[in-house]
Amino acid sequence: AQLSCLALLLAAKNLTADFGSFPPDLLLFFHPSEVRAGTCREFYARASRGNLDLLPRGSPRRTRLLRGALTCLGARGSRLEPQQLGSLGALVCDLEPGTIPASGPAILENLKLCPALTRAQQDALNALLLTGDTAYGDPSSWDLRTLQDLGPLVLALNQSTLSLVPEAVREDFRRSIAAAYSSQGHSQREKSLILFRAFAAASAASHPRLRRSADGCPSKPITADSIPLLTPEKLDLCLSSDALIKNLEAVVEQPISIESSQILKKKVDQLFPSGIPEEQLKRLGMLSRLYTEQEISQWSVTSSDTLSALLSTSGGRWEDSQVQQLLSRYLDLGGSLTGPLLREIGGERLCNLREEQIQQIPAEAIGTAGQLNISLCSQTKKEQLYGKAREAFASLASTPGPYYCRIQPYLGGAPAEDLKDLANAGVAINMDLDTFLALNPKELQKLSVTDVKNLLGENLPELKEAENEPLVVSWVKIQSQRELDCVLGIGLQGGLQEPTGTATSARPTTPASATSTATVPTPARPTTPASITSMATVPTPARPTTPASVTSMVTTPVPTTLPT
């Protein structure tokens, strides 16, 4: 949100032309309309080096960035030329899987820049590698250097590809992972563990009989460093529970296969049949992720230190249901959620809490939690969190710009009255389209055309790009089309049309007999036969009750053009 606000400020001051001095991460938030055609290639080449994870995959802003880059580079169809790939960089990560085989081996260097590939993209990558028509050759000819040269692409290799890699090469690669694991940071460790387990699974599938072999224990004592290379059978046979607990921190810091991890969990449970003590829960690391929701519900999690240790990312990923149970257990035992704990929990998992649990969160915790993504929360929970955020940031309310940047993640729970206050604060807040589309639909319908214009500010043209979004369509339908045209002026259609003219009453509402007598035209001295003149000059009766013969004469229509 802060980068978005800064990008809008630079655009407002017309400083976007000098993009070379800005960090790539900031360029991700620039609108394509702010990029000059003559320098667009350089702009997108620099922006592609930014952290794409700052923009949610599939979000309008990220989609617009890729579309702007492709338009700038003149890309047509699925095939991309090497020169285009050079400018796209990591933006290739969002392209359709069909782009991979269509573009050929040249795209592999771009794919190395992707934080993650979709399953379909991984399948396309493996299909390309299996052809052998790349710089890496056929998988059956790969050696340790080849696997190292593949870099991040090794993470996308499936079992079909790995099974073709020589067994000795796979084992060498596993050993190299284990040797480097302890010196790696958290993010790299996550990837290394995935690789280690994938290669272990490939080896196990290649030699199922060898897996079942447990011909005695090593002559040397088992150390933490040696555990990754032991088979699950030998680990179960040779490692005692006491030795495991004594060296638990060192053991859980190693890359361990799923099967071996289950063996270690079993040994911990055997040592503590009545339940794991709280001081030992802090030491479980990645083993804690192996416990079921039912088992977690029995844990003694009473301190924020224990919860923080369990939530630490160094232990790997939790399932949402596990985190929900862990938090419920902590709160049920009297714990309180602080800002740092909320950061570790994350906004998405915060949404899994019950409404009564969210109500227990202090406002000051929201104030120190940083940016939380609560887009997956129910509307009721969004409103709860917004109320707490409003209280937490109340001291900033007199400065709309900073106030908006802090409360922006929670605006999905804001009532229309507060949104109107932001719109009429007298300072442009330039709400981004993603935030606008995440507003409460019911509250958005209460905003006027001017309110929306003031909220979006510099981002108003983006509303045209989202005109088919259900939220936008429903809002447009209840606005005056004339106002949409005159106030917004961005071409939105579908509003209420005003009448094209004023209606005129043809005749007064009167009794039928009166209407007949009142509408008899009297020609101005026509030259007509006497009989017709006689009919035209019959006096209108004063009373409504007229003999039938007279009424008949009066109601006979007289043509406006009489025959001569």
Describe the fold and architecture.
This protein has 564 residues and is mainly α. Among the domains are: 1-133, no CATH class; 276-319, no CATH class; 336-413, no CATH class; 428-495, no CATH class. The chain is built from 37 helices and no strands. Helix 11 (167-181) runs antiparallel to helix 12 (186-206) and helix 14 (232-238) packs parallel to helix 17. The chain is flat and about 95 Å long. Residues 12-16, 209-214 and 502-564 have low confidence and may be disordered. Residues 499-564 have a biased composition (Low complexity). This is MSLNL protein. Residues 497-564 are annotated as: Disordered. Residues 1-17 form the signal peptide.
Relative helix content: 40-55%
Rounded to the nearest angstrom, the radius of gyration is 37 Å
- The span between the termini is 88 Å
| SS elements, strand count | 0
Rounded mean pLDDT is 84
User: Helix count, per DSSP?
Assistant: 37
Low-confidence stretches: 12-16, 209-214, 502-564
The proportion of residues in beta strands is: under 5%
Q: What overall geometry do the principal axes of the alpha carbons give?
A: flat
Judged by helices, strands and strand pairing, the structural class is mainly alpha
Report the biggest beta sheet as strand number plus sense, adding barrel if it closes: none
Signal peptide: 1-17
Protein name: MSLNL protein
Main location: membrane
Subcellular location: Membrane
